[in-house]
Structures are given as C-alpha cells and as structure tokens.
Please model this.
Amino acid sequence: MKRICSIYKSPRKREMYLYVDKRDALKRVPEGLLGAFGAPQHVFDMLLTPERKLAREDAVQVLENIEKQGYHLQMPPPEDDYIEHLPDELLRRNDPV
Model:
C-alpha cells in the first residue's frame, strides 16, 4: 500500500501534524479535531510507502490510520523530552551561584 500524503502543521501546537490522503485533503478529518488543531497549514506532499522511514512515526501505522479513519494525527513529543536534551549549561543557567 502506498499513497500520496499531504502533511499539515498546527498553528496552535508546535510539532503537531496531520497526515491525509492528498486526494481527500481535509474532507475526512472530523470538525472537532480541526477546531482543536487550528487552521491547518500545508507543509508538503510526499509519497508514503510502508518502507519509508519517518522521523517520529511508523509509516505502516500512518498508512493504516489514513485508510481507516481518513487521517493520522502526529502528536508533539512530551515536554520532558525537550528539557532532557538541553545542554547542562542551559539547564543550570538560573541556578543560584
């Protein structure tokens, strides 16, 4: 299974993305989700195959979700992940001397 997907980013939540079939665009995305997501901003289109490597998602799962429900929602990583990857000097910047 492969399909051309359109990827949209949320203006409300950093690193939140919607993957949809390019032919359907946002037609199959529920209104409630679009309301919470905000006005989707098109980022790019790509050919998605089960073999394709994605940075934070499993391509097979994305394809299955698009097939079954019409979209795949990529949630942002937990806030803790941002802090854990900061250099120690930034983490200690506000520490008392």
Summary: The helical segments are 31-37, 59-69, 79-84, 88-91. The chain is about 30% helix and 25% strand.
